[in-house]
C-alpha cells in the first residue's frame, strides 16, 4: 500500500473565520486529524464523522503528548495509507514545531505538504488595532519566543541584539516572563517609556488588551491577571491602538447572548450576532420533528397559508416525495406569515402573494382581509395557534389545518444551561423556546430577556417573566436591531 500524505496545517489564531480555505478543505477530507489545544473549537466541526480525531497537544495543564509520540503517530497513520492532517494553532512553521514534523516525515519516506496558517503574531495585534509594521514607526518585525517558564531562560536569545532591533518585537508565549523581557530590553537600551501591548485570547470572544510601557508592563499585566495564550508586542506601533482599536467598537462587543431557537435556524442568528461582536451561547431548547400526514389535493384550495420557514420546507419535502413540485401550488393564492417564510417558499420556487407587514398570525389575518377565500389550507406546526384558522372560518371560509411537524424539547446539557443563565441576554424566538428553555434551564434570573414579538412576549409573561426587549419588526433581523439598540 502506498503511504498517505501528511498535511501540516495551520488553523489560525482562534477565530474560526481565520481558517484558510485550504485548511477547511483538508479537514473535511482527512482520515486522521492530530491537533493541538490552540485550534478553534469550530475547526473540527467540518471533519468527517468517521475521521479519527486525536489530541496531541503539549501546552497547558492537560495531557502532554511527547513530540516523539506525535512523530510516531504521523508516520504510523500515513504508512497505513491514511490522509493525515496535523492541525496546529496559527502557522505550523512559526513556533509550532512543524519543521521537526516535516523532517520526521522526510526520514520515514512519507510525502508531506505544508498549509500555512495565519500566525498569532500578526493576527492578534491586528485584532487589537495594531499594525506590526507602519511607515515611519516600524520598518521591520521580529517574532521571538518568550517561553512559558520564566525559570528556564533561553540562552539562545541575544537580548542586546533584540533590544537593538530596529522595529517591532512580537513575543509569543512568555506572558509569565514579562518582567524578564522588559528588564532585558531596557538594559539593552530600549526606552523605558516604549509602548507595549499584551493581548490575551486574541481573535477569540473575550479578547483583552493591555496597553502599557516597558517600565510598567510587568506590574500592570500582573494586576490585570493577563494569562496565556497572549502575545506581547513591543514598539511604537502599539500606540496606534488608541486610534485603530476596532473590535471593541462593534455594537455588541463584550455582550454574551444566548440563542434558544432550534439548531438549524440558530446558526444564522448566531453568526449575525457574532459579526456584531457578541459572544454567543448556542442553547437550542427546541427541535422540530416531522409528522406523518397525508398531503391533500392542493388544487382543492384557493388559499394556502404557510406559517413558518420549517412549514415551507416540510411542504416541499412532502411534494417531492409524492413526485410533485411547486406546480402543485399553481393558481393558488399563497400567503407567508413573514419574510423568513417567504424566503423559504422562494427557495422552493414559489413567490408568496401575501406577506404581512407584522410577522404574526394577527398580521396575516389583516393582510388577507381583501382576499376572497372559500377554501383555505393552513400549513403549520401541530402546536400552532388557532388565530388564523379561526379568523378565516369567521369570514365564512372552509379551513383545513395541515400539521406537518411538531416542536419538541431539545435536551440542554448543564454547562450550556449554566452559560445561558449567566449571559447578558437570552433571546426567545417563539413561545415554544420560552416554554422548553425555562423547563430545561430551571428558570431565568439575571439576563436581560429579548423576545421576537408579541406571541413570544405573552408566553414569557405567562411564565412570570417580563421581556426587556421586544423586536420590531418581529423577525430575526428585527431582534438583532433591538439588541443593538438595547446594548447601546
Ligand atoms: N504556531 C502558532 C504559535 C504557537 S506557540 C502561531 O503561529 O500562532 C503558542 C503561543 O502563540 C501562545 O503562547 C501565544 O503566545 C500565541 N498565541 C496563539 N494563539 C493566540 C491567541 N489567540 N491570542 C494570543 N496569543 C496567541
Quaternary organization: single chain
Regions with little confidence, pLDDT below 50 for 5+ residues: none
Approximate strand percentage: 15-25%
Got a strand count?
20
Structural class: alpha/beta
- End-to-end gap: 62 Å
Average pLDDT level: 94
Ligand kinds: S-adenosyl-L-homocysteine
Describe this structure in words.
The protein is an alpha/beta fold and 488 residues long. Helix content is 32%, strand content 20%. It has 17 helices and 20 strands. The chain has helices at 21-29, 67-79, 98-108, 120-127, 159-164, 178-187, 217-223, 241-244, 263-275, 309-321, 339-347, 361-367, 387-394, 414-421, 431-441, 454-462, 476-487; strands at 6-10, 32-35, 52-55, 84-88, 112-115, 141-145, 168-172, 195-200, 208-213, 230-234, 256-259, 279-282, 286-290, 303-306, 333-336, 375-381, 398-409, 425-428, 448-451, 469-470. Helix 5 links the parallel strand 6 and strand 7. Helix 10 (309-321) packs parallel to helix 11, helix 12 packs parallel to helix 13 (387-394) and helix 15 packs parallel to helix 16. The protein is elongated, with a radius of gyration of 28 Å. The model has no long low-confidence stretch (mean pLDDT 94). The site of S-adenosyl-L-homocysteine has 24 residues, from helix 4 and strand 10.
